[in-house]
Amino acid sequence: MSGYWTALRAIVLREALRFVHQRERFLAALVRPLVWLLVFAAGFRAALGLSIIPPYQTYITYETYIVPGLCGMILLFNGMQSSLSLVYDRETGSMRLLLTAPLPRSWLLFCKLLGATLVGILQVYAFLAISWAFDITMPPAGYVAVLPALLIAGLMLGALGLALSSLIKQLENFAGVMNFVIFPMFFLSTALYPLWKMAESSTLLRDICAANPFTHAVELIRFALYAEANLPALGWTGLAFAAFWGLALWGYDPARGLVRRKG
Amino acid sequence: MRAGIATEGVSFRYGRKEVLNDVGFSVERGRFAALLGPNGAGKSTLFGLLTRLFTTPEGRIEIAGQDMRKTPRAALARMGVVFQSTTLDLDLTIRQNLRYFAALHGLSGRAAEARIDAALERLAIADRAGERARGLNGGHRRRTEIARALIHDPEVLLLDEPTVGLDAAARAGITDHVHRLCADEGLTVLWATHLTDEVADTDRLIVLHEGRIHADGEAREIRGAQDLRTCFLKMTGADEASA
């Protein structure tokens, strides 16, 4: 078992070191949600009235409402970014180095996924700290309770990225996939508006939002930030993780020959 | 005695296109074997199969006596690989790169550090271990990758066109270095190349062309009275100089 553990530590550490070396990536990861929080939400608070819905027990500002969605956004971008780096790694060769290690391929991929997720969680906490400085605060217990929710949501979104990276043949195709995945996933979710608000404009939109795994990830995070469990959201997020993970393993199956190269 | 590398009846297709057809050869232990073939001969595909990046239902591959289909992890554990494109993390230090690889092979702590130190000594770059890999020139990067591939003490070393992008002096240096490793440490080496000047007369030579083996034996015997370049060009029907 120690070989598994040694590899896990090394792969996670490598992800962390790579992240530390890419300061601009960290900055971009923080600026994106902060722009939403401090510019978009500030402008929107007047236009959008929110009623009291669980887990909130009082009227909340729009900024408070979108914090969980922005946490999800950080994880979503991080998941896609790390899958982008996987496609890049595959083309440059460091993915080959990883996959020729004498361990089950599923374990190696899981280590990679976990490393990327932990990097994403680090970014979320940095974002929550800045939000706190701007007086958008959660109950203290929420900051602890959100950790497992972030882990599950991050693993789910990372697994989606991993599955996508196995389906994309070349780096050039990636931008298109980002547009077709990140934007619909984010906008058709409860990150920016609650489901009932969405239903006011279209029930179809509401149904799409309700089926979107990202919605469940955001709701899981939202409740956890108030130290409450949202079991349906947990179940759906877990199920989506299992499905994406299965797809990723299929995509990286050596018999399918993803890493093939003509020569 | 069991072979270092053995393949039998290995075939592979990309869709309808046949890339490898009934490839079979066996390299005895401690031997330097050159896999010579023009670009597009199927060398990289064969490497992909030998390193289990992907698999094929047709044929059998054995590394140091371990069947790649039945005991893939045992086979991979006995193998060091140097890929065509660099796999060093350029933003990490040389030591961090070596440590990462050692950990992928289950080595950590003192055991790993001792092997890393030995590898750095062998490369004569122990004093630069804390520098980022980006600071190394092409030749040194390659040597680092070769040293890294040997950290877990493999029996077999596979190199896929390891001299691509290097100048003539660095190329000769790396070729000699691996020949010496083979002679001194008893490693079985499979060296894929399209450059005939990297093959010594006493090397085992396997010529791959259009997915089939066209010649297999000692380089000197295969070339006969002509030089290897001429012989290779005739064999592969290439009109442009490829050596």
From TrEMBL, chain A:
Record membrane topology: Multi-pass membrane protein
Residue span(s) of domain ABC transmembrane type-2: 24-255
Key word Membrane present: yes
Transmembrane segments: 34-53, 65-88, 109-134, 140-164, 176-196, 233-252
Record's keyword terms, sorted: Cell membrane, Membrane, Transmembrane, Transmembrane helix, Transport
Family: Belongs to the ABC-2 integral membrane protein family.
Protein known as: Transport permease protein
Organism for this UniProt entry: Roseivivax halotolerans
TrEMBL record, chain B:
Entry keyword set: ATP-binding, Nodulation, Nucleotide-binding, Transport
Family: Belongs to the ABC transporter superfamily.
Top-rank taxon, per record: Bacteria
Name of the featured protein: ABC-2 type transport system ATP-binding protein
A Pfam cross-reference name: ABC_tran
Keyword match Transferase: no
Residue ranges constituting the ABC transporter domain according to the UniProt record: 5-235
Residues forming coiled coils: none
Molecular function as annotated in GO: ATP binding; ATP hydrolysis activity
